[in-house]
């Protein structure tokens, strides 16, 4: 049995503030989290929980992954940008070209995200979080496709993307060159797995066990060295 995508985690210096920002922007409810943080509860359909966990570490550079938020109209893109700025986001320059239609912003802790222009066909029918756009190799895209049992929906020029068979947000990887890793990623996956055999399978696919956490939690890295957590169910 493949691992299940349980949540996306954010390490945050102020988890509650960051959760409230994203909750207001996405229209989702903030609730207490059993791991000393807070969580945005999923809404209808294929939305996943988003957990905000405390850290004292400061952000060192661009994140390995960021949200691509979709727009239902040109005016909808403008509304999302305006609302994000009102909640505490700011415009940032990551080298985007003037003719590109997306808007690049950072949340109150500097986590980058994009508000994508209306009419983007690749993100059609994905939901408000169109994609978790990631820096990574083709090999890591293949790894996560096998790990989660999510089919590849893009595999060209070493760029890859996967999506749950049920639809929803895509996860994309841009291919080489991959930026140097600057400390622990601030965004990472939380998985659930049915037994130690699944940990062994992930290792056979190219993952590495880095620590055995409290109880049945296992800390791992994928083939690109990105951290993720696995909770083993018994």
TrEMBL record:
Domain of life: Bacteria
Keywords from the UniProt entry: Dioxygenase, Lyase, Oxidoreductase
SUPFAM superfamilies (alphabetical): Glyoxalase/Bleomycin resistance protein/Dihydroxybiphenyl dioxygenase
Transmembrane segments: none
CDD domains: VOC
Pfam families: Glyoxalase_6
Residue ranges annotated for the Glyoxalase-like domain, each copy included: 8-116, 135-230
GO molecular function, a single term: lyase activity
Protein name, per record: Putative enzyme related to lactoylglutathione lyase/catechol 2,3-dioxygenase-like lactoylglutathione lyase family enzyme
Species of the source: Nonomuraea endophytica
């Amino acid at each position: 049995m493949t691992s299940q995508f349980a949540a996306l985690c954010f390490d945050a210096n102020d988890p509650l503030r960051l959760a409230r920002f994203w909750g207001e922007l996405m229209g989702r409810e903030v609730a207490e989290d059993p791991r000393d943080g807070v969580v945005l509860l999923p809404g209808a359909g294929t939305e996943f929980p988003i957990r905000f966990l405390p850290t004292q570490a400061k952000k060192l550079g661009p994140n390995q992954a960021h949200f691509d938020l979709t727009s239902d109209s040109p005016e909808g893109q403008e509304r999302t940008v305006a609302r994000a700025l009102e909640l505490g986001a700011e415009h940032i320059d990551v080298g985007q070209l003037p003719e590109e239609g997306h808007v690049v912003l950072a949340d109150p802790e500097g986590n980058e995200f994009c508000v994508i222009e209306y009419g983007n066909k690749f993100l059609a029918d994905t939901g408000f979080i169109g994609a978790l756009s990631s820096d990574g190799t083709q090999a890591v895209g293949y790894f996560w496709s096998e790990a989660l049992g999510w089919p590849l929906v893009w595999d060209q020029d070493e760029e890859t993307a996967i999506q749950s068979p049920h639809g929803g947000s895509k996860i994309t990887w841009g291919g080489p060159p991959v930026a140097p890793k600057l400390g622990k990623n601030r965004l990472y996956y939380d998985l659930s797995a049915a037994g130690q055999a699944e940990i062994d399978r992930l290792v056979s696919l190219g993952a590495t066990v880095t620590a055995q956490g409290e109880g049945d939690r296992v800390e791992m890295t994928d083939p690109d060295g990105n951290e993720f957590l696995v909770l083993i169910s018994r």
